[in-house]
Amino acid sequence: QVIPGHEARSVESLCWAAGDRLFGAGLGGDITEYDLSGLSAARGVDGGGGPIWSMVANGTGTQLAIGCEDGSVKIFQVVPGGIQFERNLDRRKGRVLCLSWHPLGTHIVAGSIDFFRVIDVTSGQTVQRIMVNHHVEKAKRECVVWAIALLSRGTVVSADSFGRVQFWDWEQGTLAESHAVSTSAVLSLAVSEKEDSIIVGTSTGATYQLQLLPVRLGGLEKRWVRTKPFQFHSHDVRAVAHSPTALISGGLDAQLVIRPLMEKVQKKGYDTALRKFTFPHRRLVSCARKARLLLFQFSQYLELWRLGSTEETGKDGEVLPLCQMPEHLVQLKSKGPEHIYCSCVSPCGTWLGYSTASRFHLYRVRCDEDGISLRKV
Question: Domain end: 209, 244, 278, which one?
Answer without folding.
Answer: 278
